[in-house]
Give the backbone structure.
Amino acid sequence: MTRNSRPVAVFDLDNTLASTAHRQHFLEGRPRDWDGFFAAAPKDPPLPDGITLCREAAIECDIVYLTGRPERCRRDTLDWLAAQGLPDGPVHMRRDRDFRPARQTKLDVLRRLEREREVRMLVDDDELVCDAAEAAGFTVVRARWAAASEALTEAQETEGRT
C-alpha cells in the first residue's frame, strides 16, 4: 500500500469551525432535544480562528472533516461547509446509532486515516478527544476559541451524540 505524499489536516466542526452557542439550550433540559440541536446546526456562525486555521492548513495539507454529528446531518453539514468557502474534503460522521464516546469514534477514524496518509494534525475542542489523540501519538491543536459548554461535553462523553 502506498501512502499519498500530501498529508492531511483533520478538523472537527462543532466549536472548532462552527459555533454551537446558539443551540446549547437544546441540551440543557432532560430529556435532551437532539433533534432540535442538530436541526439548528445550519445556522451556526463560523468561528474565525478555526476557519482561518483550516484555510491555512489547506496550503500544505488535504483537509478532512471529522465530526461527531450523526450521518443524518450530512446534507446540512456539507451545505454549511460550502457556505463558509472551506476547502473540499471528505467528511467523516458518526453512524446514526453509534453512541460511543467521541474520543473512541474519532480515534478509530484517525487510525484508519493514518494507514493511508500522514496525519499532520487534529484540530478539536473536546479535551478528551485531544488527550486520546495525543496519547496515540497524533499532533493536536486544541481549539480553545469557542466558549466551552458543560452540557455538550457531558453529552459527548456520556451519550455519544456529537
In short: The longest strand covers residues 62-70. The beta strands are 8-11, 62-70, 91-94, 119-124, 140-142. The first helix runs from residue 34 to 39. The mean pLDDT is 90.
